Amino acid sequence: MGKGDKKTRRGKIIMGSYGRLRPKRGAFKIKPKPVKTETVNNS
User: What domain of life does the native source organism fall in (predicted)?
Assistant: First the structure.
C-alpha cells in the first residue's frame, strides 16, 4: 500500500484520479450555518 496503490488516497493523488476516497472539491455542498439573532432587553 502507498503511492502505487489505486485504492488509497495517496495513490490517487499521485495518479491524479478521483473516487470515493478522494472526492472532487465541489462534490459536497456546505450547508450555511443558521445565524442566531440575539435580542437585547433594555429594561
Answer: Bacteria
